[in-house]
Every structure is written in C-alpha cells, then in structure tokens.
Amino acid sequence: MPARWILKAGNLLDEPADVLICSANPHLTLSGGVGSDALARFGPAMQTALAQIVRERSPHYIPRGEVIAYSGDSLPYQAVLHAVAIDGWYDSSPQIIREIVAKSLGMTADFGARRVALAALATGFGHLSLAEFAEGIRPLVGREFTPVAEVCICLLEDYRIDELARHLPEAIVAH
Fold first, then answer.
1. Rounded CA gap, 33 and 38, in Å?
2. Distance CA 124, CA 127 (A)
3. Domain spans of the chain, in order of start
C-alpha cells in the first residue's frame, strides 16, 4: 500500500518517527537547520561519527546523491538518514530530490520504519524553491516503500506549509 504523505507545521525533530531524513552537506557537518538542532538536542556523538565517515573517504567529502545512515542510543529514532542533496555550492534539482528521497525511503526498510519524518531537502541553505522540491517529490507520492505507511514533511512556518501544499496537492495538510 502506498505511503500517506502529510505536510505539517512544526519542528521536524519534534515529529514522532521511526526514521528521520534530513539534509546534509558534502562534509556532513551539522552546522545549520535540522543538523544544528539535532546536534544541540542529541549531543556530539552523531557529529563525531559523521566526521569519521568523511575522514575515511578520499577525497574527504560525500558526493551529492549519497545517503549516510546514523543510529545511536541518544536518538529517539532508529536512524537518521543524512541525504546529501546539494553540491559544494548548495545547488540541487528536482531530479536529484526525486532520486535521493527514493533512495532514502528504500533504505528505511533496513530499519523497519513505518513512519518517516522528511525535511524539505535543499530548500534551506540549498537553492531549491519549495515548488522545485515538490516537483521532485510528486512522482514518489503514490509509490509503495514497504514498510513505510506515512511520510511527514515538516516546515517551521505555516506559510511555507501552505506554499508546499499548493505545489503538492496530493499530500494531506495536518493542523
């Protein structure tokens, strides 16, 4: 059965979920947006592990399109999936969003995730508009990502939820 897609105003980290999918930069530094909030809430263990992953790469970065999973005892999730949807200049595209969200949702099966919280990838520090993000997501709505039953996209501001809803009418707006 296809997952339900929900749009909700609020902090993504406050949304109950089995797996969190958030934006990551190519160096996996938790320096802005959801990443910096996660660092403040859950402590430095995730940043330490992510830094080690980057150090072990040659060259020392994660290319756009990769998703790095992190699990840890301090998290309220089974995993946080760090989706690198931008390049070093913070550029992305609807095609990249479609590919990386599909890859991320496919990875959630490894964690038995039924409920996923998803950031609006590449729309904060990244250069994508919410319309472009929706264009990337739209082909995924209605697809099955077993065992995922629900994908909740959270944005802090109500007006951004309204804008995303205009571009993604297939999703349900939760109040």
1. 9
2. 7
3. 4-174
b/e string for 21-31 if b means 16 or more Cβ within 10 A? bbbbbbebebe
The residue behind tokens 């390049």 is 87
Nearest to 133 by CA among 173, 175, 95, 91: 95
The token pair that represents 8 in the structure block: 């909700």
Closest CA to 85 of 44, 48, 132, 117: 132
Q: Pick the closest to residue 36 from 115, 94, 116, 119 (CA basis).
A: 119
The CATH classification number of 4-174 equals 3.40.220.10
Give me the mean pLDDT over the 53-62 stretch.
95
- pTM higher than 0.85: yes
Is the pLDDT assigned to residue 141 strictly greater than 90?
yes
Nearest 10 degrees: CA dihedral of 97, 55, 88, 62? Answer: -20
Distance of CA 130 to the CA centre of its chain: 14
